[in-house]
UniProtKB/TrEMBL annotation:
Membrane-spanning intervals of the chain: none
Cellular component, GO, one term: extracellular space
Protein name: Serpin domain-containing protein
GO terms for MF: serine-type endopeptidase inhibitor activity
Source species of the chain: Anopheles maculatus
Ranges annotated as biased composition (Basic and acidic residues): 227-242, 254-264
All copies of domain Serpin, residue ranges: 1-259
Entry coiled-coil feature ranges: none
One Pfam assignment: Serpin
Length: 362
């Protein structure tokens, strides 16, 4: 949709002289739709930084103009970059005539306010007053077509300290719990015009998510990027009777009949929050496999199988990819065609055409 744009760009930039293997190139281009480029970090770090930043600028329509600096590249051999661009129109727009200077409190109403340009609109919005549970209120501002929503959580008596406390105590489970209880109500929204930019050190965040070996020089192993002749994969048939483990995928879809309890805001000291709608494991090994090729599986309450033409070794490089031991790629071929045929002189809308093309490849 022209009024709802989401694009993702992935790029791998290698020091010139490091040649990636054909298998890595195929995975980067086929699975992640990424580009792989060699640059001279050592002798032309300024030119390499310019190239990567221009790539990011183009991918984000000029919103992010610098993703690396020259000094970072001098001792670098590989840069993995990801850029996400999102642009959409509000479902309930803010009238330009309603924008004016209004007071904004930087640290709660007990401190002096400043005046900033503040937008205003009136309409019906998803809302929930969670004062009794979390001492906050939440409102949703949907974008056009209803494909995305921006949620704003406002602590009661908000100030910087309260915001820090909520950021430290509330997680995705709490946010999902609040969203599920929202109801549409009519109201007036005042929102200051703002521009947010920040630099985040992702290494600590990725390690907290479980990606630790990559940052440990004694355990990191990136040879698969350059190795084109891997050893034949070993499939242990002695474990064929064991059920295949399923990932605990975080989502907001709950098809169970068991009502959820309100999640506690205090973080556990030893383990993370546990999903209440855990997936059941298959009864036998055949339930976890498909008659087709390698598949990636999700829990039963959000199950989806994606068939990809990969070798057994390439499947090992992708999380949640299951390769049936007896699978023969030459014996399996799947094709899907979608077509819409309309009486001549009947015009389809651009939105319908775009949806058919993007989602159904028709």
């Amino acid at each position: 949709y022209p009024s709802h744009q989401i694009s993702v760009a992935n790029g791998v930039f290698l020091q010139r002289g490091y040649t990636p293997g054909e298998r890595f190139l195929r995975l980067a281009q086929h699975i992640y739709k990424g580009t792989v480029t060699d640059l001279d970090f050592e002798r032309d770090s300024n030119g390499a930084a310019t190239f990567i930043n221009e790539w990011c600028t183009k991918a984000t329509n000029g919103k992010i103009k610098e993703i690396v600096t020259e000094n970072i590249l001098r001792n670098t051999r590989m840069i993995v970059a990801n850029a996400l661009y999102f642009k959409a129109k509000w479902e309930t727009t803010f009238s330009p005539y309603g924008t004016r200077q209004r007071p904004f409190y930087l640290d709660g109403e007990q401190e002096p306010a400043i005046t900033v340009d503040t937008m205003a609109t009136t309409g019906c919005f998803p809302y929930y007053n969670a004062t009794a549970e979390y001492d906050v209120q939440i409102i949703g501002l949907p974008y056009e077509k209803g494909l995305s929503t921006m949620y704003i959580i406002l602590p009661n008596g908000s100030n910087r300290q309260k915001i820090r406390e909520k950021l430290a105590s509330m997680e995705a489970t709490h946010l999902n719990w609040l969203i599920e209880r929202m109801v549409v109500k009519k109201g007036r929204v005042l929102l200051p015009k703002l521009n947010i930019s920040n630099r985040i050190r992702l290494s600590s965040i990725l390690q907290a998510l479980g990606i630790r070996d990559l940052f440990d020089p004694a355990r990191s192993n990136l040879t698969e990027i350059f190795n084109d002749k891997p050893k034949d994969p070993i499939i242990d048939s002695s474990h064929e009777s064991e059920p295949i483990g399923l990932p605990n995928v975080q989502n907001r879809v709950d098809v169970s009949d068991t009502p959820k309890e309100r999640p506690y805001t205090q973080k556990p000291t030893t383990i993370g929050p546990v999903r209440q709608e855990t997936a059941q494991q298959p009864q036998n090994s055949q339930q976890g496999l498909s008659q087709g090729g390698p598949i990636a599986t999700l829990p039963n309450n959000a199950r989806r199988e994606i068939f990809i033409d990969l070798t057994a070794h390439d499947c090992q490089l992708i999380e949640n990819c299951h390769y049936p031991p007896d699978y023969d790629p030459a014996a399996h071929e799947i094709s899907l065609a979608n077509g819409i045929f309309v009486q001549r002189n009947i015009q389809l809308s651009d939105a319908y055409r775009n949806q058919s093309s993007v989602f159904y490849n028709s």
